[in-house]
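Need residues for this backbone.
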């Protein structure tokens, strides 16, 4: 057995699950023995969901990077830790062994220190998917600084909001990023963001695209120059900062149903144990396997299953800079063949998009190395599931449908590859330590099988969020106040006759577009910033590839020279304020919105109109102006 805690049979899973429910402290203490601690815990778990306050491995001391790097450098220094595949297939790929990655992380830890970083500082990372991104993340953890990675597709305004919220003092970025046939001027976007971020004292810039950038005296420096200074001193080690179990490891911003994105906080020990345990068990990783998670490190999937989960397990993690469809739709399959990928973990939206290109791009590609397939981020429809199974897995690779969230740190509900049974479009069973419950609108727990309701958790697991940065009350009200003594996920869910869970999608005002979370309120605020816009309402509608598309109803009182031009202007505003990922797919101009007499927008009606379900709009008599519904239907896009 590669890992003593790897569950290799259905029976082993059931036993572990039972133990994790009956004696959670004993269960997790046993698992935690498999890590490197500077001091072991005094208490495994202390918690209440009221405040909420959750502490795992209280009193323990560690540095997560000793678990991700040092211990593997001792036992397997020459095993590849990161295999990097660039955007452009003609550029050489890179391999960093555990020893090389360790040295690079230590060197960059020195760079951070030399630039004034201290334990507890918040450091914003806005970088392309190059190994240096993982290096920067790990170097923050090494020195005890808290990283806040911002996805490379977010706008200057979004970055500024995140930097201000966390009061970051350092930004690590690159001159630019390659993405398909585009190049994104990261540094210039950072420069715009920093006009309003006086907390930032240093910007460290990696060279990637070699485009001209403006470097500000005293504030900005080049990654390469800083590394050279460290190399000249011959420094290859960096003594890790010894952290408390519950010290913050990172902040990751995510959208909710109200207001601005919130900074989900994860802490050192619990997150480490959780990502490692779920990585080893869900994917059934075997030493030597090449694990390819196609996510960006800017999202939680990349944090947990490119960086911390795999590296803490001594695995080989493949990092891909590009997109699935450039230069053509065979890019993933070419990478699988080239690097002999064993585990492929991607999003349903990518599968559906590649499905649309037909089988030609798979033809001639050797996919024999594949052993396990995974999906994450949104419900997978059966058609896509079967396409993945037949054409990519050739019916010999188990598919794990992993359900989880930024807030959960790692997978909570999934089958274990080849160990527990898969069921198309079902995430299936909870992992050990996970206690899902379904509740009705009033918060009554729905017992038994063959039922559906809102998905909650009744017991903490090590990887759960601890707070939302700088605003604990927001954490409490968002996740712990809807239902008493339960963590509320925001997802609807059904449990079949055998106890398998199927996640049906969000029940709050959050959209899931191509696996990305978009808050409707946040997007409406952005659209309303456009000078001509009076008011707007956003709803989701089923989209063949993206899962959900964004439908905007907009009251516009500016002057249209041409409606399409106005749409482009609005999209431009959204791109500036949030980023291109939040651009609506459809913008319908309306003269009013369906509102109740108290002024509340009836989203239920708009959702039905966007979905094309015009027969059954429900009661519209309580509307302030029922006629408006007719108008909206008549002009539906
Ligand atoms: O609605 C669920 C959906 O994605 C949401 C979490 O989004 P985010 O925090 O961005 O994290 C995505 C990557 C973990 C959930 O509330 N979701 C995630 N995985 C699945 C899913 N829906 C159905 N099936 C899944 N496997």
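Answer:
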């Amino acid at each position: 057995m590669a890992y003593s805690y790897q569950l290799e049979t259905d029976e082993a899973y059931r036993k572990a699950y039972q133990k994790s429910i009956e004696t959670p402290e004993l269960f997790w203490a046993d698992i935690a023995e498999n890590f490197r601690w500077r001091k072991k815990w005094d208490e495994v778990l202390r918690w209440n969901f009221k405040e909420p306050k959750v502490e795992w491995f209280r009193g323990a001391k560690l540095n997560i990077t000793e678990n991700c790097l040092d211990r593997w450098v001792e036992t397997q220094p020459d095993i590849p830790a990161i295999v990097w595949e660039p955007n452009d297939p003609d550029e050489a790929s890179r391999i960093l062994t555990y020893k090389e990655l360790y040295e690079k992380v230590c060197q960059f830890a020195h760079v951070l220190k030399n630039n004034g970083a201290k334990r507890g500082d918040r450091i914003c990372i806005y970088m392309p998917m190059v190994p240096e991104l993982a290096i920067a993340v790990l170097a923050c953890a090494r020195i005890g600084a808290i990283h806040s990675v911002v996805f490379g597709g977010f706008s200057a305004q979004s970055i500024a909001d995140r930097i201000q919220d966390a009061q970051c003092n350092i930004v690590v970025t690159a001159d630019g990023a390659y993405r398909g046939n585009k190049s994104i001027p990261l540094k210039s976007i950072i420069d715009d963001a920093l006009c309003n971020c006086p907390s930032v004292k240093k910007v460290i810039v990696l060279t990637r695209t070699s485009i001209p950038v403006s470097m500000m005296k005293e504030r900005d420096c080049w990654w390469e120059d800083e590394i050279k200074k460290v190399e000249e001193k011959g420094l290859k080690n960096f003594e890790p900062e010894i952290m408390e179990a519950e010290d913050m490891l990172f902040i990751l911003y995510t959208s909710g149903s109200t207001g601005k994105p919130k900074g989900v906080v994860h802490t050192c020990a619990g997150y480490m144990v959780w990502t490692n345990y779920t990585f080893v068990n869900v994917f059934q990783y075997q030493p030597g396997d090449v694990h390819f998670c196609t996510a960006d490190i800017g999202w939680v999937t990349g944090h947990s299953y490119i960086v911390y989960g795999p590296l803490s397990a001594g695995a080989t993690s493949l990092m891909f800079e590009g997109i699935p469809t450039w230069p053509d739709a065979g890019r993933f399959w070419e990478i699988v063949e080239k690097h002999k990928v064993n585990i492929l973990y991607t999003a349903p939206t990518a599968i559906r998009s590649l499905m649309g290109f037909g089988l030609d791009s798979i033809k001639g590609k050797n996919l024999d190395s594949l052993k396990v397939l995974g999906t994450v981020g949104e419900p997978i429809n059966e058609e896509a599931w079967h396409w993945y199974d037949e054409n990519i897995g050739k019916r010999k690779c188990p598919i794990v449908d992993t359900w989880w969230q930024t807030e959960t740190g790692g997978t909570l509900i999934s089958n274990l590859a080849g160990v527990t049974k898969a069921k198309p479009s079902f995430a299936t069973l909870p992992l050990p330590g996970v206690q899902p419950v379904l509740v009705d609108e009033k918060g009554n727990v729905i017992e038994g099988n063959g039922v559906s309701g809102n998905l909650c958790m009744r017991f903490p697991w090590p990887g759960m969020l601890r707070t939302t940065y700088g605003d604990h009350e927001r954490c409490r009200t968002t996740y712990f106040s809807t239902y008493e003594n339960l963590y509320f996920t925001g997802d609807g869910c059904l449990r079949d006759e055998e106890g398998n869970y199927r996640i049906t999608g969000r029940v709050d005002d959050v959209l899931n577009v191509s696996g990305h979370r978009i808050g409707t309120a946040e997007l409406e605020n952005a659209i309303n910033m456009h000078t001509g816009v009076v008011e707007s309402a956003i709803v989701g509608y089923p989209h063949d590839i993206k899962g959900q598309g964004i439908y905007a109803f907009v009251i516009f009182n500016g002057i249209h020279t041409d409606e399409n031009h106005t749409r482009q202007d609005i999209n431009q505003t959204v791109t500036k304020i949030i980023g291109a990922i939040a651009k609506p797919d459809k913008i319908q101009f309306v003269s009013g919105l369906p509102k109740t007499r108290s002024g509340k927008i009836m989203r239920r009606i708009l959702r039905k109109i966007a979905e094309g379900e015009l027969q059954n709009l429900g009661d519209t008599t309580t509307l302030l102006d029922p006629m408006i519904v007719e108008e909206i239907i008549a002009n539906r896009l």
